[in-house]
Write a structure and sequence with these properties.
It is built from 14 helices and twelve strands. It is α/β, with parallel strands linked by helices. It folds into three domains: 53 residues, lambda repressor-like DNA-binding domains (434 Repressor (Amino-terminal Domain), Orthogonal Bundle); 125 residues, Rossmann fold (3-Layer(aba) Sandwich), CATH 3.40.50; 141 residues, Rossmann fold, CATH 3.40.50. It is elongated and about 85 Å long. GO terms for molecular function: DNA-binding transcription factor activity; transcription cis-regulatory region binding.
């Protein structure tokens, strides 16, 4: 491994001079510092930051901070962002927070703000004021923030419209007794302008029901659980076997929960789509290869990556234009889980 002693020998200076230069100490002349940094780069020396970073002031690295890497949505997003960022000359460092305030805070402060040129961050608990404090001026794009007027560019999926499209499609195919997985019931007027992506999907579901003359009631909802296949499997089995509720379609909050719903229904002897149609949201690859293949509102992950990374790099390069609220493209993908 290359050490500061090796750099000193190659540059013809003392080890102390190398140490001062790598710390950007003002006592070292610009010419000497530049000479040492060039030698450090030539020898592939690395410390907290590369020699190239010390010279340019940039790492050409972007942090992508998501909630849960176990979620296939996060994996698809990370893959698309990583590939597109690489095409723009940037590396991606991916971290998860598990939606914990202390994790969000430490990731921003000790990883993103210290190492990376900018951050793509999905906040769930940390207030925007604290995000600003932790990033200390570093550029960022926030994914579906819960607050308005964040001071950062934002990227969101059209969750309300997507759920409206999904629900409307099932109704157009003859489904009349729909369930939504998963949410507690809330009055439409109370959630129609919600910032939370889950409530936005509930609002889209309810808007489609109302548009078709169906009054939303608590019986349309599988009470709130986690958005994963284990929870959705257990919930739909309980509904199918014990609740007495009849239904012919399920609108799922995401694709992962839709896969759990389908497995649960099939294990209860329910035919898909002959007895019950199922539709998801996200467009994860697993849905395409499930049996039956899952109908979904598919996010264009390449569009997501392109818009988000381009916006962040522009800020890194000094763009001072007003902040933008971006929306990713989505489309209805019809497969065999619906009639």
């Amino acid at each position: 491994m290359v050490t500061m002693r090796d750099i000193a020998a190659e540059a013809g200076v003392s080890q102390a001079t190398v140490s001062y230069a790598l710390r950007n100490d003002p006592s070292i002349s610009a010419a000497t510092r530049d000479k040492i940094l060039k030698v450090a780069e030539k020898l592939h020396y690395s410390a907290n930051l590369s020699a190239r970073t010390l010279r340019s002031g940039r790492s050409n690295a972007i942090a992508l901070v998501v909630q849960d890497l176990h979620n296939p949505y996060s994996m698809h997003l990370s893959d698309a962002v990583s590939q597109y960022a690489f095409s723009r000359g940037y590396q991606i460092l991916v971290q998860q927070t598990q939606s914990a305030t202390e994790n969000e805070s430490s990731v921003l402060q000790y990883i993103s703000s210290a190492i990376c040129d900018g951050v793509i961050f999905s906040p769930t608990k940390l207030p925007i004021a604290d995000v600003h404090a932790r990033l200390a001026g570093k550029p960022a794009v926030l994914l579906s923030p819960l607050e308005y007027h964040t001071g950062y560019d934002t990227m969101s999926a059209p969750c309300e419209q997507g759920a409206f499209t999904a629900t409307s499609y099932l109704l157009s195919r003859g489904c009349q007794r729909l369930l939504f997985y998963c949410s507690d019931y809330a009055d439409y007027d109370d959630i129609k302008c919600a910032r939370d992506s889950g409530w936005q999907r509930v609002a889209g579901f309810q808007r489609a029901l109302l548009r078709n003359g169906i009054e939303p009631t608590p019986s349309h909802f599988v009470p709130h659980r986690s958005w994963n296949r284990e929870s959705s499997y257990a919930a739909i089995v309980d509904v199918a076997r014990h609740s007495g509720v009849t239904f012919d379609g399920v609108v799922c909050v995401n694709d992962e929960s839709a896969i759990g719903v389908m497995r649960g229904l099939l294990d209860c002897g329910v035919r898909i789509p002959e007895d019950v149609s199922v539709i998801g949201f996200d467009g994860i690859l697993e849905g395409k290869f499930y049996t039956p293949p899952l109908t979904t509102i598919a996010i264009d992950y390449d569009d997501f990556a392109r818009q988000t990374v381009d916006a962040l790099i522009a800020r890194i390069e000094g763009d001072k234009s007003p902040v933008r609220d971006m929306t990713v493209a989505t489309r209805l993908v019809v497969r065999e889980s619906t009639r």
